[in-house]
Fold:
Amino acid sequence: MQNILLTIDKISTWVGQLFAWLIFSLTLMITWEVFSRYVLNNPHPWAFDVMSMMYGTLFMMAGAYTLSKNGHVRGDVLYGFFPPRLQAGLDLLLYLVFFIPGVVAMAWAGYHYAGDSWAIREYSNITADGPPVYPFKTVIPIAGGLLLLQGLVEIVRCVLCLQTGQWPSRIEDVEEVDVEKLKEMVNVKDSDIAKLDQYVVAGQDVQK
Amino acid sequence: MKKEIWFGLIIMALVVVSAFLLLPPFAEMKNGHLGLLMLALVVVAIMLGFPTAFTLMGMGMIFAWIAYRSQNPSLAVDQTLDLMVQRTFSVMSNDVLISIPLFVFMGYLIERANLIEKLFKSMHLATARVPGSLAVATIITCAIFATATGIVGAVVTLMGLLALPAMLRAGYSVQLSAGAITAGGCLGILIPPSVMLIVYGATAGVSVVKLYAGAFFPGIMLASLYILYVVIIAKLKPHLAPPMSAEDRIVPLPAVTQEISNTFSDKVLPGLLGALKGKRNAATPTAEILKQLGIALLPLIAVSLLSGVIFFKITQPLPSEVAEGVVAMGGAIEDTPQEAESSNLSGLQEPQAMGDLKSPPGSSDAPQALGGAVEAAPVVAAVAPTTASAEETKPAEVANEGEREPAPTGFWIAMGVVAFAMFVFYAYFSFARLEIFKMLLGSFFPLAIMILAVLGTIVFGLATPTEAAAIGSMGGLLLAAAYRRLNFQVMKESVFLTAKTSAMVCWLFVGSSIFSAAFALLGGQELINTWVLSLNMTPVQFMILAQVVIFLLGWPLEWTEIIVIFMPIFIPLLPHFGIDPLFFGLLVALNLQTAFLSPPVAMAAFYLKGVSPPQVSLNQIFAGMMPFMAIQVFAIVLLYMFPAIGLWLPEVLYK
Structure:
């Protein structure tokens, strides 16, 4: 079971990380466009459309990746205090009530939305001679499908947690605040921090 | 443990029960009441801890379906599906939100360039004479680094690793140290370029450019209030923040300058010039002396260039609005070197000059400014070798005048003040200060120039926020490369983190735009509007009520959730009370600072606790944050009393 879960995690991660590189091309493209417009006096009318397509694709395709790393923002005022079983129970309930219907509806609607766009070979009308829009709209059902798949994995995780009382493990990934890495970056060791206790205690004595 | 759970669950149950009690019985419920019920339920559902984006999406879908069904049952499903996909697509092609991944990417890259250690050390030495210098340096470092990166958690953690040990060793109280770090680290979400202002702009339909221009001075004001508080505390209660000992203040000099300062003079200019001409300098190579001299003259060159640019701007045959803006900015800058002698905040303000100077050429969109800079360059070149003060640039500029408009007298007076200030600055410019200046040059100036270049191009309308953000990311890449931190690993991590953070914010936006559409469909908005208007509040009362509600929401919710869910409810009410959404946004941005510091869920406190020594308790950190929270409230009141703090710059720039 754990193997299947981890495999789907890997698919979500791989897709998300692949599309994550769009941020790099987005940076390069806009920088080039700015240079081209202001210095070479040669603006490209399609640049605006392409920018928004890159951004839209980037975040949509990273949705499942973020879910697989438990990265979507939660209101964790109380959640953090709950024991794992209660967390899993609540999550399971809300996955079934909110997540599955919402994402299924989005993917389904997106499928028809993109289908219509393909049928008329829709082109962007923001600028004259805009680039084709139908591949961009296709992102919605694909991202929705991936998200749904990842959501099913999370549901299984909730069930497993309800059975065993602890959350199944996930694959490690780069984190925003990785304390160990930050410590390494500024050359601080745990023992250095522990040594500081003497100053804390001394300070408290002075204040008393 | 158990008690807290029951406490939480009971509160949630109370919200639901009171929602049902206050609303009419189920059979008589109108759609508007359902909207309010939806709002109560969503707060509860968010508190249950399910990913907010999907809570909003699912709940929005269900209630949108109910709303459509009450109009036309046969079309309800199709309409709901259409609504969802259109809302999703509008977020995907949103031209405001597109700057979010770019700014986030820039932040991660700058964070990994590892400037913070150098920045903190150089700020520390630069502020050595100020009371509470370590805490002041901490706040300044936090403000700059947090502004450039925008990542609260990383800034607080890093400062907890660097500044907390330094402060504790120097005998600072735990509370003051913790307060300075946590409050300073949160400044990044207020001072532009911040992601929060983009999210607010996208939600409220306010121009991000104006928000950036407006939030600049309130952000600086809040940082200055923090510093002021620390200085006062250090003066009144020295045992909480003891002054630095004399030996800590000594800056080790490299061999060359040590030699010169021993043989000639400990002041930079006479010392280096003497060494250049004198015959006693056989041991030191001339190239080395010239290098030092070049660095020492940088402030002079910067000031001369800037005054040259301003001169050409104001004497332009066709005075434009932009020029007035520049003059106004220039006026603020010209005062700064005066403070150089007191050496406390000079570091903070000087780069403003450099940043403003560099931003127009960097954006390549200001041929006039560029021309001005180029023309001014020979003047500087002529002046620099003779090492005269800025006064000598005057005749040269007058010679260049030609048919241009005569400069106003105020300009010459300001120039005189600047020249005098530069004179005083160089009179006190010792070799130790040169070392500090060099350290700042390697840490503070690159960051400050980058922030100001990004901001300047946005605020002066030279580039859209998106373009400026992309160039900022490029700058981040170059910065990381310049500090030899750019490798594939760092690049990969920054890219992946950017994807996750952008997905988090933008999916939340997808959810909230479906949710707010459902809320509007049900007529919940109208119900709230009529209710609030029936209270007959004055604008002041409404403003206070709104800020109190946001303050209270900041306790259980995060700023992203507050903005995307509750701003759409407040914004339509603003025209009734004649409140500018821009001004409201600035107040909200200040207000949400408190959300990061309000116990027991203050994120900043937990990040700091994670890296502080075991004897430091969470309660001590919370206690340390309290005065800073009071300062935030004070800042909100100040901004409310004097809206010009925030609105002056946007008004000057975008009349």
